[in-house]
Amino acid sequence: MPFNVTLRMGAAVAQIDERNPRILIGRDRNHCGIVTDDPSCSRRHAEVYIEAGGVFIRDLGSSNGTWVDGVQVTQQAAQLGPGKQIYVGYVPLVAEISGGADAGATVMGEMPPELLVLMQQRFDQAKSQGFGAAPPPGPAAAPVAAPGAAAAQPSYQMPAYQAAPAQPAAPVAAPVAPVAAPVAAPVAAPVAAPAAAPSAGLGVGGTEAPIPSDMAYRRQGSNSNGVLLIALPGDTFQNDSMCEGYLEYTAMDDEVVASITIELVECHKKGPKNGHVWDRMLVRQGPWKSRKGDVLPMPFKLRIPPGTSVTGRDVYWELRGYVDINWAFDVEASSPINMRNIDVERVRDALGALDYRIVELDPKPLGQQFIGKFQPPAQLRKQIGISDINLVLEYLGANLQVKFEVEKTSLFKFDKSTEFVFELSRLRAVALPELTQHFKEQIDQLMAK
Fold first, then answer.
1. Span 376-399, average pLDDT
2. pLDDT value of residue 328
3. Can you give 24-58 as a three-state secondary structure string?
């Protein structure tokens, strides 16, 4: 049975599966797959995703939190399953899981009294510090008991806080306070050593760290609230490595910042409309109050998967950064990058040394598989009656499977094929002549009359 998850929050319904395994929840209509106008939800509040046969939710630095069974979820994800109760801010979320060991649905019920108390405490703290947090839900109708309830009665509205117990339960014994030290002044560059001595050590065994101004590739986005800069050492990266750089946020006004995040996104013309997020990092979690003129540099590191598609006619890659500002327009920036695949390049080089030219090698959406063909030299095509050799590269964990399939000019086109598996570490380390010889032996067997 196919493994998929149907998510319901108010009138919004969306589905994720193993092909499109991630979705954002929040008030941002441009980037969230489940959109709500509830003020207790941040613009990009939480993420639900499928991984290793399970369903998980994690918070993206929201102001009012994400909760599973009365316990607040952080960037460390919590697994979902039948019978669990989920709140995104003050709004309930239902997940119906089909297939897999955890098939079933989460539930919607009365908000736990300890959660109500904690929300009131957080609201009072934020108000006293001038953060302007969204007020907790007031008295209203009875709780919703089933997913199909009418949207006219918000399911998060509970009895007044005075009715809640005076002592919160154990899972939420202490309120979650905002960041203790708001950014009160422009932040200097994180390099402590003077610029005149760039090679000097910092402390025992220390070295100078790079800063955004040292990085050659820089893109920014801005509006009246602020400027977000993405700074990279270059614009080209390769599979199975790390993408490291800096975000730098400059406040143009006094605002309350909920979070700052960055994503690594692959966009394929046959893939998801808004691209596929391969990795996402919560660079800084708030809320905190920024002042006009504040400059905040933040390093980031994103993991690039082993089997990435290559930048080309059907694929492009970019980094997307977001500053989530409470009750104001968010600041966004994007930086296009080029993606290489060193394994595909080695296969091309090995075949090229035999005068077998790859005509095309197109990646499937989300990478992991490449399909194309290459042509033998003209004299061999005529002598043996071969037009092309089909080629399929597919990533299988830490291995790369290579499949050759001879296409003959006779009526029986696909009469011979072979496949073999390389360990990725071996493929990348072996000398090119040895790799070329291996391909030659395999192709010679295929092209024998």
1. 77
2. 79
3. EEECCCCCCCEECCCCCCCCCCEEEEEECCEEEEE
Specify whether the CB–CB gap between 94 and 8 falls below 8 A.
yes
Residues 216, 274, 279, 288, Cα dihedral to 10°: 80
What are phi and psi for residue 300, nearest 5 degrees? -140, 160
pLDDT of residue 197: 40
Segment 157-184 mean pLDDT: 38
**What are the start-end ranges of the E strands in 38-146?**
46-51, 54-59, 66-68, 71-73, 78-80, 86-88, 91-98, 104-105
Tokens of 87: 């709140």
Asked whether 368 and 394 are in contact (CB, 8 A), the reply is yes
pLDDT value at position 386? 66
Helix (H, G, I), strand (E, B) or coil at 195: coil
Query: Which one, of 121, 158, 128, 130, lies nearest residue 142 by Cα?
Result: 158
**Residue 410 is which amino acid?**
S
> Which pair of structure tokens corresponds to residue 427?
């493929």
Q: Report the 3 state secondary structure along 197-229.
A: CCCCCCCCCCCCCCCHHHCCEEEEEEECCEEEE
Rounded to an integer, what distance in angstroms lies between the CA atom of residue 288 and that of residue 308? 36
Alpha-carbon gap, residue 86 to 91, rounded angstroms = 8
Cis (ω within 30 of 0) for the bond into 287?
yes
The least confident of 112-126, 191-205, 427-441 is: 191-205
Q: What is the mean pLDDT of the chain?
A: 77
Tokens encoding 341 = 């695949």
Given a cut of 70, whether residue 95 has pLDDT beyond it is yes
Predicted confidence band of residue 292 (pLDDT cuts 50, 70, 90) = very high
pLDDT band with cut points at 50, 70 and 90 for residue 133: very low
CA atoms within 13 A on the CB side of 114: 15
